[in-house]
Design brief:
Layout lengths: L6 E3 L3 H6 L3 H15 L7 E3 L7 E7 L3 E7 L6 E8 L7 H14 L5
Parallel strand pairs: 1-5
Antiparallel strand pairs: 2-3, 3-4, 4-5
């Protein structure tokens, strides 16, 4: 059995998820728990334009919510950004936030 990875919250990601409606928060938490255990979340897609290995959890509960994370590093699952999606395309602002926070965890040799 693979040991559970801790979750590392970057920037305002934890506060942002806590601001989700209850059902969306629970769905996001369930998905993150699966990721910590080495599984894929129920609904996700890759977000290569944010960074290599970055994925998006898609939460459709009382609205459209997204959680950007990267789990490819051994030490933790990094939650980069969480937000409510209000249009078909992910807003450039949200992609930029994810990129900036991803840059915080990148190290040479990875």
């Amino acid at each position: 059995m693979v040991p559970e990875k801790p979750v590392a919250w970057l920037g305002s990601a934890l506060a942002d998820i806590r601001a989700f409606p209850r059902d969306a928060r629970q769905e996001a938490g369930f998905a993150l728990d699966r990721i910590q255990q080495g599984f894929l979340p129920p609904d996700w897609k890759p977000m290569a334009d944010v960074g290599p290995g970055v994925n998006e959890i898609r939460v459709r509960s009382g609205g459209q919510y997204r959680v950007l994370y990267v789990a490819k590093f051994e030490e933790a699952v990094y939650v980069l950004h969480a937000f409510q999606k209000k249009s078909r395309r992910t807003a450039q602002r949200d992609i930029d936030i994810g990129r900036r926070r991803y840059a915080m965890i990148r190290r040479p040799g990875r």
